Amino acid sequence: MRFTKYNSMNDILAYPDMAQYLKVFYSEYLLSMFPKEYYGEPFMLAQQFGETPWDEPFSNVVDQLLDAVNLVLDIRENHTRRCISLWNPSEDWVLGNDSKSEKRGVFLVARNELKVTDKKPAVIICPGGGYENVCFSGEGTPVMHFMEAQGYRAFILKYRVAPAAYPEPQEDLAEALRLVREHANELGVDSENVMTMGFSAGGHLCASEAALYEGAAKPDKICLGYPVISFVKEAHEGSAVNLTKGDRKLMLELSVEYMVTKKYPPSFVWTCADDDCVPPSNTVRMGEALKKADVPSDTYVYPTGGHGCALAFSKSAYPWSRAMIEFMDRDFSGTQQD
Fold it and tell me: Beta 153-158 vs 189-199: how paired, if at all?
């Protein structure tokens, strides 16, 4: 079963519990943008009348909704994906265990592979949300589909956010890395080629976790999109306060530009110069820290794209994904030092 642009919002909301699932896998804010007078019309028509407060076609918002809805169907109906309860991996996550701040709400979206015939590089995707939400809509499901098309086993992490605080989100990502490596054979993953990819606050999560953990919990490579890096210089105040509960000493300790050493994983970092939410200087500082520590890295600041543009296919920042794939295809063996 699939929903397409020939369906309507009424069709989608008639599916059992879909409104509740969309609170997890989509966004109540984005749902509120859909013109209610067109709920009964096909999305191909309704998208002509919707508007976003930012410079983006409303068709992109519709596409993200359909991605979210079809992900729910893949979990519930088609059984091609599952949500692994990270802290109780013998069970799958179910609706009702959707606490934002408790372990029962933590899960890893994975393909339900019945017959794995080959091993592929893996990516664990951490959407942003200011350590207040986990924004599946743009930075989760669409990115998962893109990375799978590039030959990756892609996972999305639903991690703990406020009122949960440090170190709980970092513990969730560390546990996700351990789980993917421990179950590499059944998941079809190359356990020595596991990357993390984070956007905005999810970028801070990936960047800080890589500095704090070793062994199976340390990623082999990292991609950071318009990341929150500094909590003390041109910081994104919401992310800093949510993660540290306002502890100034902890803010300094978790400013990633001071956490990078020569043991840090190879990193691809990018942002947009017109980002008015997370200052682009965060990416610049991260790039400088990586260069100073002699860590293999590429850093890009694209002229336009704003904040939260994810794959950015409707923005001038769209080349980042191709550049990132080329970077990740390099051989970094022997570059990290003990």
Answer: unpaired
- Say what the pTM is: 0.96
Q: Which residues pair with 195 in a beta bridge?
A: 123, 221
Q: What is the pLDDT of residues 266-277, one digit of tens each?
A: 999 999 999 999
d(CA 49, CA 58): 8
Q: How far apart are CA 271 and CA 285, in angstroms?
A: 12
Q: What angle do CA 12, 79, 110 make, to 5 degrees?
A: 100
The residue to which tokens 């080959």 are assigned: 118
Sign of the alpha-carbon dihedral angle for 121, 218, 127, 186: positive
> Could you tell me how many residues make up the chain?
338
Q: Please say whether the beta carbons of 89 and 175 come within 8 A.
A: no
pLDDT at 207 over 80: yes
Task: Name residue 17's amino acid.
Answer: D
Report the share of the chain in percent with pLDDT over 70: 98
The pLDDT, as a whole number, for residue 182 is: 96
Distances 96 to 21, 23, 127, 231, 275 between C-alpha atoms, Å = 9, 11, 21, 34, 35
User: CA-to-CA distance for 56 and 75, rounded, in angstroms?
Assistant: 29
